[in-house]
Design a protein that fits this description.
6-stranded antiparallel β-sheet, 5-stranded antiparallel β-sheet, about 15% helix
Length: about 240
Protein backbone atom coordinates (compact mmCIF):
# COMPACT_ATOMS: atom_id res chain seq x y z
CA UNK A 1 0.00 0.00 0.00
CA UNK A 2 1.29 3.44 -0.92
CA UNK A 3 2.14 5.66 2.05
CA UNK A 4 0.20 8.91 1.84
CA UNK A 5 0.89 12.36 3.23
CA UNK A 6 -1.73 13.12 5.88
CA UNK A 7 -1.12 16.80 5.20
CA UNK A 8 -2.07 16.40 1.52
CA UNK A 9 -4.98 14.08 2.35
CA UNK A 10 -6.55 16.70 4.61
CA UNK A 11 -5.73 19.68 2.41
CA UNK A 12 -7.35 17.92 -0.54
CA UNK A 13 -10.63 17.09 1.22
CA UNK A 14 -12.83 19.94 2.44
CA UNK A 15 -15.02 17.62 4.49
CA UNK A 16 -13.70 14.25 5.69
CA UNK A 17 -16.04 14.70 8.69
CA UNK A 18 -14.55 13.12 11.79
CA UNK A 19 -11.21 11.32 11.64
CA UNK A 20 -9.07 8.95 13.71
CA UNK A 21 -5.32 8.45 13.32
CA UNK A 22 -3.41 5.66 15.08
CA UNK A 23 0.28 4.93 14.59
CA UNK A 24 3.84 4.90 15.88
CA UNK A 25 6.53 7.58 15.80
CA UNK A 26 9.51 7.14 13.44
CA UNK A 27 11.84 6.58 16.41
CA UNK A 28 9.59 3.71 17.54
CA UNK A 29 9.18 4.96 21.12
CA UNK A 30 5.71 6.53 21.07
CA UNK A 31 2.21 5.32 20.25
CA UNK A 32 0.23 8.10 18.59
CA UNK A 33 -3.45 8.87 18.30
CA UNK A 34 -5.28 11.86 16.90
CA UNK A 35 -8.98 12.60 16.60
CA UNK A 36 -10.62 15.57 14.91
CA UNK A 37 -14.18 16.77 14.41
CA UNK A 38 -15.59 19.04 11.71
CA UNK A 39 -19.00 20.58 11.20
CA UNK A 40 -21.18 22.14 8.51
CA UNK A 41 -24.13 23.16 10.70
CA UNK A 42 -24.14 25.74 13.50
CA UNK A 43 -24.99 22.94 15.96
CA UNK A 44 -21.99 20.82 14.91
CA UNK A 45 -19.61 23.78 14.96
CA UNK A 46 -20.73 24.89 18.42
CA UNK A 47 -18.41 22.46 20.22
CA UNK A 48 -15.10 22.19 22.03
CA UNK A 49 -13.02 19.32 23.42
CA UNK A 50 -12.48 19.35 27.18
CA UNK A 51 -10.47 17.00 29.38
CA UNK A 52 -12.39 14.37 31.34
CA UNK A 53 -10.33 12.02 33.50
CA UNK A 54 -7.69 10.44 31.27
CA UNK A 55 -9.85 11.08 28.21
CA UNK A 56 -11.86 13.91 26.66
CA UNK A 57 -15.47 14.79 25.94
CA UNK A 58 -17.24 17.22 23.65
CA UNK A 59 -19.05 20.16 25.16
CA UNK A 60 -21.23 22.92 23.76
CA UNK A 61 -19.19 26.11 23.34
CA UNK A 62 -22.38 28.15 23.74
CA UNK A 63 -24.84 25.84 25.57
CA UNK A 64 -27.77 28.12 24.71
CA UNK A 65 -27.29 27.32 21.00
CA UNK A 66 -27.26 23.52 21.34
CA UNK A 67 -30.33 22.20 19.51
CA UNK A 68 -29.79 18.40 19.43
CA UNK A 69 -26.96 17.08 21.60
CA UNK A 70 -27.72 13.39 20.94
CA UNK A 71 -25.07 12.79 18.26
CA UNK A 72 -22.60 15.58 19.00
CA UNK A 73 -22.03 15.42 22.78
CA UNK A 74 -20.06 12.32 23.80
CA UNK A 75 -16.70 11.11 25.13
CA UNK A 76 -14.42 10.50 22.11
CA UNK A 77 -11.53 9.22 24.22
CA UNK A 78 -11.53 6.96 27.30
CA UNK A 79 -8.79 4.92 28.95
CA UNK A 80 -9.36 1.42 30.34
CA UNK A 81 -6.20 0.21 32.05
CA UNK A 82 -3.58 -0.19 29.32
CA UNK A 83 -6.12 0.42 26.54
CA UNK A 84 -6.98 3.77 24.96
CA UNK A 85 -10.33 3.94 23.13
CA UNK A 86 -10.97 6.61 20.46
CA UNK A 87 -14.27 6.92 18.58
CA UNK A 88 -16.58 9.38 16.87
CA UNK A 89 -19.58 8.78 19.12
CA UNK A 90 -21.03 7.30 22.27
CA UNK A 91 -19.79 3.87 21.18
CA UNK A 92 -16.68 4.84 23.19
CA UNK A 93 -18.76 3.89 26.23
CA UNK A 94 -20.01 0.70 24.53
CA UNK A 95 -16.43 -0.45 23.87
CA UNK A 96 -15.29 0.55 27.36
CA UNK A 97 -18.10 -1.38 29.04
CA UNK A 98 -17.75 -4.40 26.74
CA UNK A 99 -13.99 -4.73 27.14
CA UNK A 100 -14.37 -4.24 30.89
CA UNK A 101 -16.51 -7.42 30.75
CA UNK A 102 -13.80 -9.29 28.79
CA UNK A 103 -15.41 -8.87 25.36
CA UNK A 104 -13.13 -8.11 22.43
CA UNK A 105 -13.11 -4.76 20.62
CA UNK A 106 -15.07 -6.31 17.74
CA UNK A 107 -17.55 -8.11 20.00
CA UNK A 108 -18.24 -4.93 21.96
CA UNK A 109 -19.38 -3.18 18.78
CA UNK A 110 -21.76 -5.93 17.66
CA UNK A 111 -24.68 -4.17 19.34
CA UNK A 112 -24.03 -0.88 17.48
CA UNK A 113 -24.65 0.36 13.94
CA UNK A 114 -24.06 3.54 11.93
CA UNK A 115 -25.65 6.74 13.21
CA UNK A 116 -29.41 7.22 12.63
CA UNK A 117 -28.93 10.56 10.86
CA UNK A 118 -30.72 9.95 7.54
CA UNK A 119 -29.88 10.47 4.73
CA UNK A 120 -26.15 10.45 5.65
CA UNK A 121 -26.16 7.42 7.98
CA UNK A 122 -22.80 8.57 9.30
CA UNK A 123 -20.41 5.64 9.89
CA UNK A 124 -19.26 4.88 13.42
CA UNK A 125 -15.47 4.81 13.37
CA UNK A 126 -13.52 3.49 16.35
CA UNK A 127 -9.96 2.75 17.39
CA UNK A 128 -8.32 0.82 20.22
CA UNK A 129 -4.68 1.05 21.34
CA UNK A 130 -3.17 -1.63 23.59
CA UNK A 131 0.19 -1.04 25.26
CA UNK A 132 1.60 -3.68 27.59
CA UNK A 133 5.10 -4.83 28.52
CA UNK A 134 6.72 -2.53 25.97
CA UNK A 135 4.54 -3.91 23.16
CA UNK A 136 1.98 -1.92 21.18
CA UNK A 137 -0.91 -3.05 18.95
CA UNK A 138 -3.91 -1.22 17.61
CA UNK A 139 -7.12 -1.85 15.71
CA UNK A 140 -9.69 0.22 13.85
CA UNK A 141 -13.35 -0.37 13.06
CA UNK A 142 -15.98 1.14 10.80
CA UNK A 143 -19.71 0.36 10.93
CA UNK A 144 -21.53 1.79 7.92
CA UNK A 145 -24.70 1.48 5.89
CA UNK A 146 -24.65 -0.63 2.74
CA UNK A 147 -24.02 2.12 0.18
CA UNK A 148 -26.61 4.34 1.86
CA UNK A 149 -29.12 1.53 2.47
CA UNK A 150 -29.96 1.62 6.20
CA UNK A 151 -31.47 -1.88 6.14
CA UNK A 152 -27.97 -3.39 6.10
CA UNK A 153 -24.95 -2.66 8.29
CA UNK A 154 -21.47 -3.46 6.99
CA UNK A 155 -18.85 -4.11 9.70
CA UNK A 156 -15.10 -3.93 9.13
CA UNK A 157 -12.28 -4.35 11.65
CA UNK A 158 -8.60 -3.79 10.83
CA UNK A 159 -5.97 -4.99 13.31
CA UNK A 160 -2.32 -3.89 13.29
CA UNK A 161 0.01 -6.04 15.36
CA UNK A 162 3.45 -4.64 16.21
CA UNK A 163 2.99 -1.60 13.94
CA UNK A 164 6.05 -0.38 12.06
CA UNK A 165 7.85 2.74 13.30
CA UNK A 166 6.94 5.82 11.30
CA UNK A 167 3.66 4.36 10.02
CA UNK A 168 0.10 5.20 10.94
CA UNK A 169 -3.43 4.62 9.68
CA UNK A 170 -6.16 7.17 9.05
CA UNK A 171 -9.89 6.51 8.85
CA UNK A 172 -12.64 9.13 8.53
CA UNK A 173 -16.40 9.20 8.30
CA UNK A 174 -16.99 10.71 4.87
CA UNK A 175 -15.25 10.06 1.58
CA UNK A 176 -15.71 13.76 0.74
CA UNK A 177 -18.28 16.54 0.92
CA UNK A 178 -21.66 15.89 -0.65
CA UNK A 179 -25.40 15.71 -0.09
CA UNK A 180 -25.99 13.13 1.18
CA UNK A 181 -22.47 12.68 2.51
CA UNK A 182 -20.80 9.56 1.00
CA UNK A 183 -19.34 7.13 3.56
CA UNK A 184 -15.61 6.36 3.78
CA UNK A 185 -14.57 3.51 1.46
CA UNK A 186 -11.82 0.89 1.70
CA UNK A 187 -9.30 0.13 4.41
CA UNK A 188 -7.67 2.80 6.59
CA UNK A 189 -5.12 4.90 4.72
CA UNK A 190 -1.43 4.31 5.38
CA UNK A 191 0.21 7.58 6.41
CA UNK A 192 3.57 8.82 7.66
CA UNK A 193 4.02 9.96 11.28
CA UNK A 194 6.22 12.51 13.07
CA UNK A 195 8.35 12.25 16.22
CA UNK A 196 7.50 15.82 17.26
CA UNK A 197 4.02 16.06 18.81
CA UNK A 198 3.87 19.86 18.55
CA UNK A 199 4.77 19.75 14.86
CA UNK A 200 2.29 16.91 14.19
CA UNK A 201 -0.53 18.76 15.96
CA UNK A 202 0.20 21.99 14.13
CA UNK A 203 0.40 20.25 10.76
CA UNK A 204 -2.93 18.46 11.27
CA UNK A 205 -4.76 21.56 12.48
CA UNK A 206 -3.41 23.76 9.69
CA UNK A 207 -4.29 21.14 7.06
CA UNK A 208 -7.97 20.86 8.06
CA UNK A 209 -10.43 23.01 6.13
CA UNK A 210 -10.54 26.39 7.87
CA UNK A 211 -14.30 26.83 7.59
CA UNK A 212 -15.30 23.33 8.69
CA UNK A 213 -12.75 22.35 11.36
CA UNK A 214 -13.93 22.39 14.99
CA UNK A 215 -11.55 20.56 17.37
CA UNK A 216 -8.45 18.36 17.41
CA UNK A 217 -7.03 15.96 20.01
CA UNK A 218 -3.51 14.49 19.80
CA UNK A 219 -1.84 12.12 22.27
CA UNK A 220 1.66 10.61 22.30
CA UNK A 221 2.10 7.62 24.66
CA UNK A 222 5.51 6.33 25.70
CA UNK A 223 5.43 2.61 24.82
CA UNK A 224 7.97 1.71 27.52
CA UNK A 225 6.32 3.54 30.42
CA UNK A 226 2.72 4.25 29.39
CA UNK A 227 3.12 7.94 30.24
CA UNK A 228 1.48 10.31 27.79
CA UNK A 229 1.29 13.89 26.59
CA UNK A 230 -1.87 15.43 25.16
CA UNK A 231 -2.65 18.44 22.98
CA UNK A 232 -6.16 19.84 22.43
CA UNK A 233 -6.92 22.55 19.86
CA UNK A 234 -10.37 24.16 19.68
CA UNK A 235 -11.47 26.66 17.04
CA UNK A 236 -13.85 28.14 19.61
CA UNK A 237 -11.62 29.52 22.34
Amino acid sequence: MEMLSIEKELQGNAYPGRGIILGKTPDGTKAVTAYFIMGRSENSRNRVFVTEGEGIRTEGYDPSKLTDPSLIIYAPVRVLGNKTIVTNGDQTDTIYEGMDKQLTFEQSLRCREFEPDAPNYTPRISGIMHIEGGKYNYAMSILKSNNGNPDACNRYTFAYENPVAGEGHFIHTYKCDGNPLPSFEGEPKLIGMLDDMEAFTEMLWNSLNEENKVSLFVRYIDIATGKYETKIVNKNQ
